[in-house]
## 1
Amino acid sequence: MAVNGRTPLIAGNWKMNLDHLQAVAFVQKLHWALKDAKHEDDSVEVAVFPPFTDLRTVQTLIDADKIPFAFGAQDLSTHDSGAYTGEISGAFLSKLQCGYVIIGHSERRQYHHETDEVVAAKVQAALRHGLVPVICVGETLEQREESGPTAVSVAQLEVALEGVPASADIVVAYEPVWAIGTGQVASPEQAQEVCAALRAVLADKLDADAAARTRILYGGSVKSSNVASFMREPDVDGALVGGASLVVDEFAAIIRYQKHVGV
Ligand code: PGA
């Protein structure tokens, strides 16, 4: 656990990669890769976010082999059940023992036209079913140039937190759109500036305790070679990793780094 009391969270967003058979091999290999590092302590929490079709398989494996990874889904429906073809209910996810669900990833906002209001409704759906929402916010390069580094993320988080009780268990992820999958990483200072602004939103919309306890992740081209620089920032409590979470040794190195710096 870090000195600030927030356990770092390293989350792997697989996006539409790895089928359920590949998922088994991946989780087993990652577990083996980390075994030597004795990661079965509370110095860092590891979570994987496979596609929906892998969740049952991943849950069964994690459960059977007592693998200390959390897991979650990449999205959920705003509705709990009914005539919504193709949608997945939070009720199903919590029955599968998902701990987390990613909400409002920029790829959902961009390709599926998810508005801030839809994101807020999904946050409510997650909380109704005992899932921890990983609320993603972040600006495009155009928006950064137009309104500065923090305005878009702050506004997105403010809407997402509508109706969220101060006691809710949530995670926030700052992912500048211009840094996702581009190799164009934000500087640690840029990440810190926005994460600090997001923590201020938590204090304002929820309360001081929620701001102190809620983990804020940075995401966007995180690799083993740069994770340390982000984790040194006081308001960055972990990473949401895309591409580098699909390579066992690289993802293990990102997780292991946490241990070695003793955060
Ligand atoms: P990336 O993706 O690490 O491949 O940039 C991050 C994300 O989209 O969560």
Note: Strands lie at 9-13, 45-49, 70-73, 100-103, 132-137, 171-174, 215-219, 238-241.
## 2
Amino acid sequence: MTNTDPVKVGVLYSQTGATSAIESSQRLGTLMAIEEINEAGGINGREIVAIQYDPASNLHQFRAHAERLVAIDNVNVIFGCYMSSTRKAVIPVVEKYNRILFYATLYEGFEFSNNIIYTGAAPNQNSVQLADYMMSSFGGRVYLVGSDYIYPYESNRIMSDLVNQRPGGSVVAQRYVPLDAGAREFDAIAAEIREMQPDFIFSTVVGNATQHLYRAYAEAGLNPKTLPIASLTTSEVEVAQMGAQAAAGHFTAAPYFSSIDTPENWRVTDRFRARFGDDVRPNACWEAAYFQVHMFANAMRATGTDVVPLLMRQLLGTEFVAPQGRVRIEPGNHHTHLYPRIGRVNSKGEFSIVRASKQAVAPDPYLVTHSLGDWTLALEALPD
Ligand code: ACM
């Protein structure tokens, strides 16, 4: 007899707390993929059912809800986590119960778990290209500002190494603010930047606090033409929160921007807008959250089961035509081949893509073989 039971999956993205806006976009990207799969007949006739909790941007709640998903709801697969601190909280759960976490967020690298598929960028797919672009375009003196948790510390360590590798490169200061920092917490930072006059700022501020950094920068009279902010975590979502005026002229490196001109991107973003409206902006973390669900469904169709060792074996090495281009899960490290791009916010609050790799770059989460300026074999320099 054919199995027609629904396939239950866990969905763990915060709808409240410091990273609620970006995680809400990931949640909706996940739900849209699930709808598409169900409309197309599910997984071999089995409907996917999402079991969702709101872990409130809190690592203890992430761990507790992950435990509940696997031990009580009995899901084999969880889609979720944004902050690295929350992923680190969920790893012991998926490892203990032998389940799979699909993680759709850029992060600091230097990690491997047999129970995770990483679909966001590793540092060799965004930091390396961003350091190269910013130092070539603006100079080597960088000011680092971040939120107070593991991703910013580690991402800043990597950026510092990249900057110091190049003649004239130096870190002029490194500052941290609380995750829930408000408008006034960035005033002193903006004043210090004005005084120090670095060549550019590297921001690892995440979530809803991001808008306050960019506004404080603008209020301090700083000019993105000569001293821009570069980031990996300021996406279309944070740009919408701060407004085009505060965002224009600043840079982000990511494998995906909603302005990418591919047929698959227009199809997916049109559908998303029609289904969920204009409030939630497609962005790189949304795109990875979307395509990883399809990769899961394709793997489960092929194996006929979500039993973890079989599903994981099937996932490794598989490809998918995502909005950013054709992506592939690297069997050796469970990370994904992705397309480095650099976007600059224009006056409409959209990212104009100023540089893009023609080919997917293999993930190198331990930065074993990277070199500064490595855009892999092909590099497409696009007009401003
Ligand atoms: C992050 O914490 N990986 C953005």
Note: DSSP finds twelve helices and 16 strands in the chain.
